[in-house]
From TrEMBL:
Protein name (record): L,D-transpeptidase
Region (Disordered): 75-100
Pathway(s) where this gene product acts: Cell wall biogenesis; peptidoglycan biosynthesis
Signal peptide: 1-39
Species of the source: Actinomycetospora aeridis
One GO molecular-function entry: transferase activity
């Protein structure tokens, strides 16, 4: 029965293996490293609670906005290039449109003539109605624009150029 386990009938004695050579320092090092060598690679973490997951837009979008989740992502080939950005969008009376748009122009220090000279820093206009991504308070709905925190508005302003694709979904 060489090479097979045999249980001792004497109480307190352990299982023995016939023909087992004494364990040396080199053998101990190999055995200690063996579990690491066979460990499976780490898997990416699951999406956080709330299920933000991947941006819900086509691979062609340079920025993706999900109005129902109140989030936006800068994207490259359909993959987010950073964390989701919290947004505020239009009210039911002045909704933010859904669809695919192209960035038309950018204005670092835009002031709205239509809405009482409201400051709209880091404006990136995406439709013919004057709607834009811009920095502003997210405590209330906009008149159809996508409002972002200042650092996020700066990132969107820096990343997008005229002609870049904007996708807005609900």
């Amino acid at each position: 029965m060489a090479g097979r386990h045999r249980r001792s009938t004497t109480p307190g004695r352990s299982i023995t293996r016939a023909g087992l050579a004494p364990l040396g320092i080199a053998s101990a090092a190999v055995l200690a490293a063996a579990p690491l060598a066979s460990a499976a690679p780490a898997q990416p973490a699951a999406p956080a609670a709330g299920g933000l997951g991947a941006p819900p837009c086509d691979d062609s979008a340079d920025v993706c906005v999900d109005l129902s989740r109140k989030k936006a992502w800068l994207t490259d080939d359909g993959r987010a290039t950073g964390d989701p950005m919290p947004i505020t969008s239009g009210s039911p009376e002045d909704p933010t449109p859904t669809g695919t748009f192209a960035v038309q122009r950018k204005e670092r220090y835009h002031v709205s003539k239509e809405f009482d000279d409201a400051s709209m820093p880091y404006s990136v206009f995406f439709d013919g109605e004057g709607r834009a991504f811009h920095s502003g308070s997210r405590s209330s709905n906009s008149h159809g624009c996508i409002r972002l925190d200042t650092q996020d508005a700066r990132a969107v302003f820096a990343a997008l150029e005229p002609g870049d694709e904007v996708q807005i979904v609900r």
